[in-house]
Automatic annotation (TrEMBL), chain A:
Residues 21-224 form the RecA family profile domain. SUPFAM superfamilies: P-loop containing nucleoside triphosphate hydrolases. InterPro entries: P-loop_NTPase (IPR027417), RecA_ATP-bd (IPR020588), XRCC2 (IPR030547). This is RecA family profile 1 domain-containing protein. Gene3D superfamilies: P-loop containing nucleotide triphosphate hydrolases (3.40.50.300). It comes from Sphagnum troendelagicum.
TrEMBL record, chain B:
It holds the Pfam family Rad51. Belongs to the RecA family. RAD51 subfamily. Keywords: ATP-binding, DNA damage, DNA recombination, DNA repair, DNA-binding, Nucleotide-binding, Nucleus. SUPFAM superfamilies: P-loop containing nucleoside triphosphate hydrolases. This is RecA family profile 1 domain-containing protein.
């Protein structure tokens, strides 16, 4: 009772803090990747990129991270830090370096002999802004999120502001968490946490991290159900990419935007993927190919 | 997970302990699930903030933490990226070098398409050309040491160019590098994998045998998992994902190339699709589909999933008495 009154009187933050938090949005917001450009995203949004395995979700997240890392001048990037939580174990540092090199090379070619900084310096500066951690189960993930606070504060003290928080992929521990909650504890103390409790903790930590630092959250989600009918796949122009939800309600409420991906499409000369916005529901699908310099929309 | 009092935190006074206990936070697990850190830090006195900081410090020490990309690149350069040759040149060409260390490759194919032959060829090739150890987990009693010996013999003859027989001790030295384990159910396979992980990770106590282990083959992973997988049943899926997790750990932390095999089941329109369902699809980095072409008597390999190469390449090989020989792929 005493605690509640004190908390109510003291409040959570001063007006100065709030204004500083909200008004630092005069920052670059060019679209990170081509499929995301139709919807104006801002800080504290949570975008879920869902699709079956092999539909370019991780590639999309990686290309978005590269755009965020690159400097604004000449490369059109956000010049911000990226926090990457690798839950799947699929992260490949070589692919990140390859994409950065391709974009730096492209930027240099377009600069037409103006003042060019050394490519290596830019590469090193970008790589320093990229922070990666691997998690092996849900508790490891929660611990990682809780311990990130201090590390982000430290990075900000050194003048690097974080802009993007990426999770690849959020459904990685789904079966493990569901099975863990079924195991009957030997004693009363070891009551297994339900998947809802674990998801609630993850959402709470993500919410606090993204709120405090104005981060945009991008999460990939791999589907665990096979596609039901094959008709929708044949006609790529008709909207209606399939999506069956399996994450708990706490996660579903946290997500503010959802992009569905599918591919690669058969019967095409190039390797083409399709994307469709489900939340907000936009009609029409985008078709894109993967290149080292970015995702290119094709007609 | 330990209780908070067991951690020996200097700032944890009985008063702070009762405040936390009134919120239901008694163990570290409770802290992770229920503690709203921003609220606790904003509320409480300095001591409560100190306790929260000490608990977070404890959590930080338990895990590796955030690593910058620059550090990651330096570590990678120190370790060196190795592509292990598969022994089949056409396959190496489409994989841009071979099996990459730190990745999980899956061979999918119906019966008698050459999966086990390819596994044995890769084992022979890595044991001979890289002078490395290979761990081969055989689950369907299809490993044949005589066949592997023939393959190694062919490799030695082609590289050293002599027509006559191969010295027995040279052959023996290479074959000693292939360690075969038998496992017929998922639990024994999981215990072998966990033991491997533990003995390689403990640098000081690694038995001499495991120091240069570079390749792990599980033939076939699907025969271990299919019996326990039934419909949408939770335990089976959890065991399958758990197996995927330990294979990944072996690949990433112990820097191995992992090769597993999977069979096919009937899909739509009679097209065979890989077994083990949708949840398994995301686990391998690279998936190769093997089909047998009866007219040319060759097996064709197509890349159906790859994390960094486009999936429109094909290679072809023939199974001969001397091992696997590359053939021209029919386009």
């Amino acid at each position: 009772m005493m605690m509640d009154v004190r908390e109510w009187v003291r409040g959570h933050e001063s007006v100065a803090c709030m204004l500083h938090r909200v008004l630092t949005n005069s920052r670059c917001t060019t679209p990170l990747v081509a499929p995301l450009q139709q919807v104006a995203l801002q800080a504290r949004d949570v975008v879920e990129v869902a699709g079956p395995s092999g539909s370019a979700k991780s590639e999309l997240l990686l290309q978005a991270a590269v755009t965020c890392l690159l400097p604004e001048r000449l490369y059109g990037g956000w010049e911000g830090g990226v926090l990457w939580y690798d839950l799947d174990g699929h992260f490949d540092i070589l692919r990140l370096v390859c994409l950065l090199q391709a974009r730096i090379h492209q930027g240099k070619a377009l600069s037409l002999g103006g003042l060019i900084e050394d490519g290596d310096n830019i590469m090193n500066a970008c790589l320093e802004r990229f922070l990666l951690t691997r998690c092996y189960n849900s508790f490891d993930f929660i611990a990682a999120l809780q311990t990130t606070r201090n590390q982000v504060k430290e990075a900000q003290r050194q003048g690097r502001s974080m802009r993007l928080l990426i999770i690849d992929s959020i459904g990685a521990f789904y079966w493990l968490d569901r099975a863990a909650s079924l195991v009957a504890g030997a004693s009363i103390e070891s009551s297994r946490p339900s998947i809802q409790a674990v998801t609630r903790a993850v959402v709470r930590e993500l919410h606090q991290l993204s709120n405090m630092h104005g981060l945009l959250v991008l999460a990939s989600k791999c589907s665990i159900f096979s596609p039901q009918s094959s008709d929708a796949r044949k006609d790529t122009r008709r909207a209606g990419l399939q999506h069956r939800e399996y994450m708990p309600a706490e996660w579903q409420e946290f997500v503010t935007h959802r992009l569905l991906l599918q591919g690669p499409m058969s019967g095409e000369a190039e390797v083409v993927f399709i994307s469709e916005w489900q939340m907000p529901a936009l009609s029409g699908v985008d078709r894109f190919t993967i290149e080292n310099t970015g995702l290119k929309l094709v007609i | 997970m330990p209780k908070l009092i067991e951690l020996g935190l200097p700032s944890l006074t009985p008063e702070i302990y009762s405040i936390l206990a009134s919120q239901g936070i008694i163990s570290v697990e409770d802290f992770m699930l229920s503690a709203d850190i921003s609220k606790l830090e904003a509320w409480g006195s300095g001591t409560l903030k100190e306790v929260v900081a000490e608990i977070l410090h404890y959590l930080e020490c338990q895990r590796v933490g955030l690593k910058s990309g620059l550090r990651g690149v330096q570590d990678m350069q120190a370790m060196g990226i190795q592509y292990l040759p598969t022994g089949c040149d056409s396959l190496d060409a489409i994989l841009e070098g071979g099996l990459r260390e730190g990745t999980l490759t899956e061979l999918v194919g119906a019966s008698a398409t050459g999966k086990t032959q390819l596994c044995m060829q890769v084992a022979a090739s890595v044991a001979y050309k890289c002078r490395a150890l290979v761990a081969y987990i055989d689950t369907c009693h299809s490993f044949s040491s005589i066949r592997v010996a023939h393959m190694v013999g062919t490799l030695i003859k082609t590289s050293e160019g002599h027509q006559g027989g191969v010295a027995a001790d040279e052959l023996g030295k290479v074959l000693k590098g292939i360690l075969k384990f038998s496992a017929f159910d998922i639990y024994s396979a999981l215990s072998i994998l966990h033991e491997l992980h533990a003995s390689i990770s403990n640098n000081f106590q690694a038995p001499e045998e495991f120091r240069h282990l570079r390749l792990l083959i599980v033939d076939s992973a699907s025969s271990l998992i299919s019996p326990i997988l039934g419909g949408n049943q939770i335990q089976g899926h959890a065991l399958m994902v758990g197996m995927g997790a330990i294979l990944r750990k072996l690949a990433i932390e112990n820097h191995l190339a992992v090769l597993i095999t999977n069979h096919t089941v009937g899909g739509e329109f009679g097209q065979p699709k890989p077994a083990l369902g949708e949840s398994w699809k995301r686990i391998p980095d690279v998936r190769l589909l093997l089909t047998h072409n009866p007219s040319s008597n060759a097996s064709e390999v197509a890349v159906i999933k790859h994390s960094s190469i486009a999936c429109n390449k094909q290679a072809s090989f023939c199974i001969t008495k001397r091992g696997l020989q590359s053939a021209e792929a029919e386009l």
